[in-house]
Amino acid sequence: MTQLAAAPLLLTPGPLSTHPAVREAMLRDHGSRDPAFTAMNQRIRDQLVALVAPGDPTWTCVPVQGSGTFGVEAALGSLVPLNGELLVVSNGAYGRRLVEIARRLEIPVRVVKAPEDEPPDPNEVARVLGRNGGITHVAVVHCETTTGLLNPVGAIAAVVARHGRRLIVDAMSALGALPLLAADTPALEAVVASSNKCLEGAPGVAFCITRVTALREAAGQARSLSLDLSAQWARFNQDGQWRFTPPTHVLAALDVALRLHAEEGGVAGRGARYAENCRVLVDGLRGLGFQTLLPDALQAPIIVTFLEPGHPGWDFDAFYNALAARGFLIYPGKLTERPSFRVGCIGQVFPDDLRRFVAATQDVLLQLGLPDGAPSPSIGAAP
Ligand SMILES: Cc1ncc(COP(=O)(O)O)c(C=O)c1O
Asked: Ligand 1, atom 14: nearest CA belongs to which residue?
């Protein structure tokens, strides 16, 4: 076997560092029609439902081959009726992607926008719903991964429920670490996420956790053949099979990842580790002079946006490469207006890893000739 170089630690929004047992699960082949595979598939679907609607048989889960966006596109394209209209609540790149998907699918769409560093205003959502009786569904991102901002899904859900509409949540970077329970979220119709973020599986499968009634009503209305959630759900009910080749190895990895998630204490346990990761990261980098985009009250413990320091010697590529040489991969920023970079707190990453990362960052600042740390943009030379 070829000798592999040591893997770097992925401090990114995903794909993420995984547990060795998750990677090992992919060393075995599975027959997609074998009863053992069918049972594993059902177990995965049941465990995913239990993250949102534990013990509630009126909810189900339909997985979809592909990355998270495939799941979002499947949900919007399947669940919004052909004469329906969508309202997207958007404060970042993934909110904008919801709008883009709706436009491609020719779903009439309105947008309530907020700046990237602010939560959207539920009262504005109420105003738009009040004025537009044709809107059937509202879609919002739970943790806006562009910035790491935690959106007020509960308050938005309450407004959507008051107006008798339905809510679709893109919980891609939150599910498994931040609670989102159907019982506490009125009007919730569907939650979309993927295998490779807080569930710490391998990339390659997305899923929609949704109400059985929504799938029943969606029969025959999907705007795509392969991304038809209702048809896939019907097929699972009929003979337990995927309609098209399932990502068998990725599902085997997710099966193990979900077991590890339960062993860690489920959403509460994983969320607590990520919160501690985030605290160590933010305290450590602030101690070196970096400034976070968001105040702590808006920050989800998923990914943190740091503003690029206004130091004339700052060079993101050099910073990235020097950290990579020390075994840490970070992520460029995704803000539309301010130069920034991001560091993730999720995956098989522990507080001690973040302590090592902070020490490595200090070392890199010295190497790059920023011995006094990273002065904040407001006092630096260039924003
Ligand atoms: C909130 C959110 N939605 C959607 C996506 C898209 O997922 P993918 O890149 O897997 O298609 C991401 C990816 O980071 C995300 O964070």
From this structure: 13
Intervals of CATH 3.40.640.10 along the chain: 20-263
CA of 181 from ligand 1 middle (Å) equals 20
Q: What is the mean pLDDT of the chain?
A: 95
E strand map for 145-267 = 149-150, 166-170, 188-194, 205-211
For 150-181, the pLDDT digits (tens) are: 999 999 999 999 999 999 999 999 999 999 99
Question: Which residue's CA is the nearest one to ligand 1's atom 7?
Answer: 68
Upstream peptide bond of 15 is cis (omega within 30 degrees of 0): yes
In our burial notation (b when 16+ CB lie closer than 10 A, e otherwise), range 164-174 reads ebbbbbbbbbb
- The tokens describing 335, both together, are 């803000």
- Three-state DSSP class for residue 352: helix
**163: closest CA among 112, 230, 229?**
112
- CA torsion sign for 326, 329, 332, 334 is negative
Q: Is 141 in the pocket of ligand 1 (CB under 6 A)?
A: yes
Residue 344 backbone zone (phi > 0: left; psi -120 to 50: alpha; other: beta): beta
- Give the atom of ligand 1 at the shortest distance from the alpha carbon of 70: 11
CATH of domain 20-263: 3.40.640.10
Mutate which of 76, 94, 101, 346 for ligand 1? The one with the most ligand atoms within 8 Å of its CB, which is: 94
Please indicate whether residue 94, judged by its CB atom, sits closer than 6 Å to ligand 1. yes
- Residue 5 is predicted with a pLDDT of 75
Judge if the beta carbon of residue 67 lies within 6 A of ligand 1: yes
Strands (E), the chain: 9-10, 59-65, 86-90, 109-113, 137-141, 143-144, 149-150, 166-170, 188-194, 205-211, 291-292, 303-307, 328-329, 331-332, 340-344
Query: DSSP character for 210?
Result: E
Give, in words, the CATH class of 266-367.
alpha beta
Residue 331 three-state SS: strand
Give the amino acid at 171: A
Q: Residue 141: which of 105, 108, 109, 113 has the closest Cα?
A: 113
Give the C-alpha separation, 193 to 206, whole Å: 6
